[in-house]
Amino acid sequence: MRRIARFVAASTMSLSLAGCGVLNATGSSTTATPTKGNDITVGVLMPDKINTRYTNFDYPIMKSKIAELTNKQGKVDYQNAGSSAPKQAEQLQKMIDDKVDVVVLDAVDSHAIADKVKKATDAGIPVIAYDRLAEGPIAAYVSFDNELVGEVQARTLLEGLGSNVDTSDKVIMINGSPTDPNAKQFKTGALSELTGKVTIPDGAMFDTKDWDPPTAGKETTEAINAIGKDNVAAVYSANDAMAGEIIKALKAAGITNVPPVTGQDADLDAIQRILTGQQYMTVYKPYPAEAEAAAEMAVYKVQGKDIQFDALTQDQVDSPSNKDIPAQLVQVSAVTKSKIKDTVVADGIYKISQICTTEYKTACAEAGLK
């Protein structure tokens, strides 16, 4: 993915309509001539149920923002594909048949969905790619800087190994799904930091189909058998759901002192594992900012509010099929034990009471979470 601008400041995500005036815009939310009114239907297609973020954060945040932007007249048609690319294609086709006004799409398989994206576009339904850059004539894209995510994971992993890290340290690498373009970018970013500093032995790197946690656990066991349990210095896990199974596999192999394990998504159970030292880090991606931006893009696009839409999409990216797609890329943060309070708690993702249940009271007190 080519990036014209590496990322837009996160504050852009909460850009107010009044703020468009600083761009010397002549229009506003009240003066623009909309192509559609507030009575619109936004189709929202999420990829899987493995990651809790889609149900807990992305969808409800989008729904709330769409209601706010449309004076509670806008409707949301939400569907989750459950990791099935054919099912998601059927869901998108039904939205085309139902004549929704715009679709926000987080693709299961970014290449396979391209034909349906074209069908939607040909039917006058713009498609906003969300989180993963789908192929086809995408109207806009909002996500995080995915190579940066991998870089942050790898840099933090190296910090966890300490100052004496060198190429004698063997790292298991469990990447995401080969059908997810984001996974390739995470991997590229991580390898840019790990290569030449540690060793990823033969038989210790996997691309995990559908991001499936049990598969990630089995792959970890294979890697341990290949390199020996005493030689595992750390594990790069591309996300938190897989990290949970990876840690189980490490313990099942007799590795009692769990080495640094990375993650991504700031799942609640991952935050709790970080508190107790089972997982070393996760990547926090500000979902409210991403989801609200997608909702704004969708509404502004179909209402013809070009000034506001352009203000949200000041980056450009390329997919394998299309060039110069308007985009917004958002910054991310590494979360280790000392940073929980300043990230997911400070941003209201989790309350301390959600994190610090009875089992984690002692760990929370030690981490200053009160």
Task: Describe this entry's structure for a reader.
This protein is of the alpha/beta class and 370 residues long. The protein has 13 helices and 12 strands. The strands form 3 sheets. The chain has a 7-stranded mixed β-sheet, sandwiched between helices. Strands 7-6-8 form a 3-stranded parallel β-sheet, sandwiched between helices. A hairpin with a 7-residue loop joins strand 10 and strand 11 (325-330). Helix 4 packs parallel to helix 5 (181-194) and helix 9 (287-302) runs antiparallel to helix 10 (306-312). It starts with 40 loop residues before the first strand and ends with a helix. The model is unreliable at 2-34 (pLDDT under 50).
Summarize the structure.
This protein is α/β, with parallel strands linked by helices. The chain is 39% helix and 15% strand. The two termini are 42 Å apart.
Radius of gyration: 21 Å
- What would you call the shape? globular
Class computed from helices, strands and strand pairing: alpha/beta
Give the low-pLDDT segments.
2-34
Helix content: 25-40%
Approximately how much beta-strand content do the residues carry? 5-15%
Determine the mean pLDDT.
90
Query: Tell me about the biggest sheet?
Result: 7 strands, mixed
